[in-house]
Amino acid sequence: VRLSPATAGRLPASVARPAYGRDEQAVGVVHLGLGTFHRAHQAVYTDAAMGQGDRNWRIAGVSLRSADVHDQLAPQGGLYTVTERDGAANARRLIGALAEVIVAPQAPWAVVERLAAPATRIVGLTVTEKGYHAGLDGQLDWATPAVAADLAGEAPPRTLYGLIRHGLARRRAEGLAGLTLMSCDNLSGNGEKLAAWLGQFLERCDPPLGRWFAAECACPSSMVDRIVPATTEADRQDVAAALGLIDQGAVVTEAFHQWVIEDRFAGPRPRWEAGGAQLVSDVRSHEAAKLRMLNGAHSALAYLGLFRGHTYVHQAIADPALFSTIRRLMDEAAASLSPAPGQDLGRYADALLARFGNKALGHRLDQIAADGSQKIQQRWLPTLAWRQRHGLASPALLTALAAWTAYVRGDRFVVADPLAGDFAALWARCGEPHIAAALFGDTGRLNASWTATAADQAQMMRAMADIRRPGPD
Ligand code: CS2
What is the reported pTM? Predict the structure, then answer.
C-alpha cells in the first residue's frame, strides 16, 4: 500500500508528522528543482515553520527535467518521509509542505501560472550548478540553445529564465507584488549571481520588466548544507519495512542540517527559524567556508577515492592516505577564509570529517564526481588563487586537481559532465605532458580565476602518475 493522505494515519507513532492542517494551507512558495536535496532541506524548514503556526507556505514543486519525481510524489498527494540516519539510529518524519508537483517540460504554463499567483511570494531554486547555464567565464551563456530559445520567446519557456520571465511579466501586468527569488545551489554569491544572470536576461528580452525586477524583487544569498545521497531502491525497501507503507518519494539524509540566509526579502517569508535557519546580514563567510572546506573536500574525496577503488565517502575518508590529504586540503582552504566572529574553522573541519565518516549514509563518490567542471570553480580555484597571491604552496589542492584532471580523461570512469566530450578531446590532443597547461595554464580552458604556473603543472603531472597507478596499496 502506498503512502498517501488516506493511508498516512497508519504510520507508526514514532514517525513525526505535520502539526498543521495541510489542506487549509495555500501555496506560498514555488520551488524549481525538486530533487532529494530540496525535499530534505528547504521543504523540511518550511514544514517546521507551518508546524509552529506559520500559515500558507505550502510549496508548488517544479521538476525542470523528468516526470520521475511527479510519478513518485503525485500519487502520494505530495507526502513523503525524511529518514535521518546516524549510526544505528533512524529518525523519521512525514513532510506535508509539498502541495503539488508540476513537470515543467510537460506543463510550462502551469509553472508560469503558479509564479504569477497572488499568494506566491517566494521562488526557491535547487537546479544544480549547471542549471544556471553559465559559461566557464562565469557569464550567462547566451549560446545555450534553451537560453537562446527562451530569449527569443517564440516557444514555451524551458529554462528557469524563461519560466520566471513569463511569471514576473504577468505579476507586473496585474499589479502584483514582486517576488523573493532564492538560489539554494552551491555557487558562491548564489543570490548575486542569480540576480545578475536573471537581470541580464530580462534586460535583453523586456527592458521595462528588467527594471521592475530590479526594483520589486530580491535575490538573497544563502548557504545551504545537508548531505543527501540519491535515494536507492534498497533505501525505499528499508523505509517501506519501517513504515508499513511504500514511499516512492522517500529521502534519506544525515541528522545535520544548516541554512544561513541573507535577510533581504522582497516581501513576507516563512519563519524558517522554526527549523533552525539563521538569518544574517551577510552570508559570505559561511558560504565560502562551506564551499571551500565541505564541498572542496567532498570533490577531492570523490576523484581521489574513485581512483583508489572506493565507492562511498565513508570508505574514502577511512583510507589513511586520503584522510591526511583531505585534512590538509581543509587547512589550505581555511587559510584563505576570513571567518565571521564566532566561526571556528578548526572545529568546522573536525565536524566535517565526522560527517563524512557517517557509515549509515552510503553517499556515492560518483554522485559527487558529476559535473566537476561546474563545481571546482567554486570549491578549489578560489583557494588556489588566494594561496598563489600569498606565495603559499597548495600540495593537497593540486593533488585533488590532478585527480580531477586524470578523471576527465574518461578512460577509467564514465564522466558525467556537460563538458565531458571537450575534455576527452583535449586529452586526446595533449596527452599527459600538456593536459594541465591546456586546462589551467596561461591560455587554459578553465583558468578564469586561477592560472597554474609551470611548477604547479609539473606537480600535477607527478601527482597524476601516482593517482593512476592501479589499486589501493
Ligand atoms: C556534494 C554536495 O554532490 C556534491 O557535489 O558535494 O551535494 C554536498 O553533499 C552538499 O552540498 C552538502 O551540503
Answer: 0.97
Given a contact cutoff of 8 angstroms between Cβ atoms, the answer to whether 114 and 351 are in contact is: no
Distance, in Å, from the CA atom of 393 to the CA atom of 453, rounded to the nearest integer, reads 11
370 Cβ closer than 6 Å to some ligand 1 atom: no
Residue 471 in this model has a pLDDT that exceeds 60: no
Do 37 and 126 touch, CB atoms closer than 8 A? yes
Q: Which of 226, 227, 258, 375 to mutate to test the pocket of ligand 1 (most atoms within 8 A of CB)?
A: 227
Q: What is the pLDDT of residue 473?
A: 46
Find residue 82's DSSP bridge partners: 93, 251
Q: How far is the CA of 294 from the centre of ligand 1 (A)?
A: 8
Q: Is 308 exposed, middle or buried (0-12, 13-18, 19+ CB in 10 A)?
A: buried
Q: How far is the CA of 364 from the centre of ligand 1 (A)?
A: 11
The per-residue b/e assignment along 310-340, b for 16 or more CB within 10 angstroms, e otherwise, is bebbbbbbebeebbebbbbbbebbbebbeee
Q: 32, 102 in Cβ contact below 8 A? A: no
- Helix-, strand-, coil-residue percentages of the chain, each rounded to 5: 50, 15, 35
Q: Using one digit for the tens of pLDDT, what is the confidence trace for 331-372?
A: 999 999 999 999 999 999 999 999 999 999 999 999 999 999
The rounded distance, in Å, linking the Cα atoms of 1 and 54 is 32
Q: Report which of 147, 152, 158 is spatially closest to residue 65, judged by C-alpha positions.
A: 158
**Residue of 37, 312, 367 to mutate, ligand 1, most atoms within 8 A of C-beta:** 37
The residue whose C-alpha atom lies closest to atom 13 belonging to ligand 1 is 225
Q: How far is the CA of 352 from the centre of ligand 1 (A)?
A: 12
Find the mean pLDDT for residues 320-326.
Answer: 97
98/63 Cα distance (integer angstroms): 13
> Which mutation among 42, 254, 368 tests ligand 1's pocket best, with the greatest number of atoms within 8 A of CB?
368
Q: Grid cell 573536525 — which residue?
A: 350
Q: Alpha helix (H) ranges present in 175-232?
A: 190-205, 207-216
How far, in Å, CA of 12 to CA of 16, rounded?
Answer: 9
Q: For residue 4, how many other CB atoms are within 10 A of its CB?
A: 15
**From the CB of 36, is ligand 1 less than 6 Å away?**
no
